[in-house]
Amino acid sequence: MTETDSSPPFIRVTGLRKSFGTQKILQGVDLDICHGETLVLIGPSGEGKSVLLKHIIGLLHPDGGQVELDGVNLSEMSERQLLVARRRMGYLFQNAALFASLTVAENVAFPLREAGVRDPGVLAERVHEALDLVELSAHKDKMPINLSGGMRKRVGIARAIITRPECILYDEPTAGLDPVVTDVIDHMIQRMQKHFRVTSVVITHDMNSVFRIADRVVMLKNGVVSFNGTPEQLRGSPDPEIQNFIAGRSGITA
Ligand SMILES: Nc1ncnc2c1ncn2[C@@H]1O[C@H](COP(=O)(O)OP(=O)(O)OP(=O)(O)O)[C@@H](O)[C@H]1O
Ligand SMILES: [Mg+2]
């Protein structure tokens, strides 16, 4: 999907730099994310994909460069503006990060309560709707400790989508899920785009998912964007490193 020349991209990342101690992670990341597109972020483990997503939602602050949302630099926003900006986004943490003392339904309802929804009927209906999308309605009264890893991840997804955000950032939504549930989640991401024009940024290591859901693929390598194109362009890339990554080859010989 393309933007008209006059409107800024939904999210614009420019020259983003981040180090932890002496470890340089992001070393000048440039990336535009357009309204309504599904952008998939791939790259080797430890390259900074999760770190990049945390900058987009404003949980981490850049050492250099910036993240703009609709043309406004997150670093220049007031606390109040940042809160409003965050409400426009849903975020699935890589480890789901559920509240251990809350039930599934209470975890999912949390962002809606934060947004000021108090009516128990509305809360119950929206929780049901979100859990239904990830096929977990029957488990709403369980505690997180009594769920499988994959179920926890799906509760995290329900919690990310319950406020019906404009943009959803998914950090490995299908890692550890069986192929059928992976298919359910991939379809859900596609449905959200089709019916609600949701913008999605998805980190995944699952190449089947990449080719199923991506409008555009971005690869992060050595602290920068090393590939930015369509899934077809990725498949046809002459770069042997990209071909090895797609095929899951390490390049090591026995
Ligand atoms: N808060 C932090 N403090 C110190 N180091 C951090 C912090 N967050 C991330 N890192 C480091 O930054 C690097 C990139 O981490 P990140 O989680 O973004 O990798 P990733 O690309 O998401 O990998 P994976 O595919 O395994 O999830 C890692 O070396 C990690 O240890
Ligand atoms: Mg990660």
Task: Summarize the entry for a quick read.
The chain is α/β, with parallel strands linked by helices and 254 residues long.
CATH class of the largest domain reads Alpha Beta
Please indicate the count of domains: 2
**Anisotropy-based shape:** globular
**What is the β-strand count?**
10
- What is the fold named in CATH at topology level of the largest domain? Rossmann fold
**Small ligands present:** adenosine-5'-triphosphate, magnesium ion
What's the average pLDDT?
92
Strand order of the largest sheet: 6-7-8-3-9-10
The CATH superfamily title of the largest domain: P-loop containing nucleotide triphosphate hydrolases
Distance N to C terminus: 44 Å
**What is the beta-strand fraction?**
15-25%
CATH-level-2 architecture of the largest domain: 3-Layer(aba) Sandwich
Low-confidence spans: none
The structural class is: alpha/beta
Radius of gyration: 18 Å
Q: Give the helix proportion (percent range).
A: 25-40%
Topology pattern, helix = H, strand = E: EEEHEEHEHHHEHEHEEHH
Number of helices: 9
**Main beta sheet: strand number and arrangement?**
6 strands, mixed
What would you note in describing this structure?
The protein has helices at 49-56, 79-87, 104-114, 120-133, 149-161, 179-196, 207-213, 231-235, 240-247; strands at residues 11-20, 23-33, 38-42, 64-69, 72-73, 89-92, 167-171, 199-203, 216-221, 224-229. With 254 residues, the protein is an alpha/beta fold. Strand 1 and strand 2 (23-33) form a beta hairpin. The longest helix is centred in the last third of the chain and has 18 residues, at 179-196. It is globular and about 55 Å long. The structure holds adenosine-5'-triphosphate (ATP) and magnesium ion (MG). Magnesium ion is lined by residues 49-50, 94, 171.
